[in-house]
Design goal:
Blueprint lengths: L2 E6 L14 E2 L2 E2 H10 L10 E6 L5 H9 L3 E5 L4 H12 L3 E4 L9 H13 L5 E4 L9 E4 H10 L11 H4 L6 E4 L18 H14 L8 H10 L1 H5 L5 H11 L3 E3 L5 E3 L3
Parallel strand pairs: 1-4, 1-6, 4-5, 7-9
Antiparallel strand pairs: 2-3, 6-8, 7-8, 10-11
Helix pairs in contact: 3-5
């Protein structure tokens, strides 16, 4: 049995180009995220963390940073993350996958472990997700068999936005949602995902205040800092509706159901 982590990242973002390699507290943001995934109890060696990027030359610098930091790189389709993931899983011979989004720089390690522990504990499950955490904190864990189901059924090859819905909104996979998160971790006002300049300002303030030397940040300290400094959360609060509207507009995804009929995912 082999467990690995997949993180989709590419540098050609229209809203904030090169965001993953912007330096905060002395190192690229992608390295802050990698530290959090390396810390998972289910990651036995750094090479089992795989940043899935594209074959475009614009991602060469990302590839160099990631491999020099100890993680692995897989390069594949630009817009088709389902294919990119499937090919990476085959190449690295993964049985169970911890999946973290590349924009979620402060994704909580304890919930990575919680989702994987739940998945390994119930062989009937295909995927375990989290609910109730601030945007950008949750992760998912799924099986290679779940990936195979999705790969067989998906039809939209431009799925860089909303790809996870193939696992969670199609009925293809048996899902468990972990919603009993610690009350101390609930902070609905917080937006901790990196899409816009204002998001970068929030991450910079949090990291520079709590980890000026780039050491691993405790998630509970992040939550407490935001509660103590609500003005930081206000920096990007107005982006929430725009973010979800953009997701709804772009996530036009179709798949074949168990009867072979074409269907669209309802977001």
């Amino acid at each position: 049995m082999k467990i690995g982590a997949l993180i989709p990242i590419r540098l050609a973002s229209r809203r904030l180009p090169g965001k993953a390699i912007i330096e905060v507290a002395g190192k690229p943001l992608v390295c802050h995220l990698l530290d959090r995934v390396f810390a998972s109890e289910y990651i036995k060696q750094k090479q089992d963390v795989i940043v899935c990027t594209t074959e475009d030359a614009s991602d060469d610098k990302l590839a160099n940073i990631v491999t020099n930091y100890g993680a692995s790189i897989f390069r594949g389709s630009t817009d088709d993350i389902i294919k990119r993931f499937n090919d990476a899983i085959i190449e690295h011979k993964l049985d169970y996958i911890l999946q973290v989004d590349g924009d979620d720089i402060l994704c909580a390690t304890e919930y990575m472990d919680l989702t994987m522990r739940s998945l390994l504990g119930d062989k009937s499950l295909d995927i375990v997700t989290c609910d109730g955490l601030p945007l950008g904190i949750a992760s998912k864990s799924f099986t290679q068999k779940a990936m195979a189901k999705v790969y067989e059924a998906y039809q939209t090859d431009k799925n860089d936005t909303g790809f996870i819905y193939y696992f969670t909104k199609t009925g293809l996979c048996k899902q468990k949602v972990i919603s009993d998160v610690s009350p101390e971790h609930i902070l609905d006002e917080a937006r901790l995902t990196l899409d816009y300049t204002a998001d970068l300002e929030v991450f910079s303030k949090v990291i520079e205040a709590l980890s000026p030397s780039g050491e691993l940040l405790d998630f509970q300290k992040v939550v407490q800092y935001l509660k103590d400094n609500p003005q930081v959360m206000e920096i990007n609060a107005s982006l929430e509706e725009e973010y979800w509207q953009r997701t709804r507009d772009k996530a036009k995804l179709s798949f074949k159901d168990s009867d072979g009929l074409a269907r669209e995912i309802q977001v």
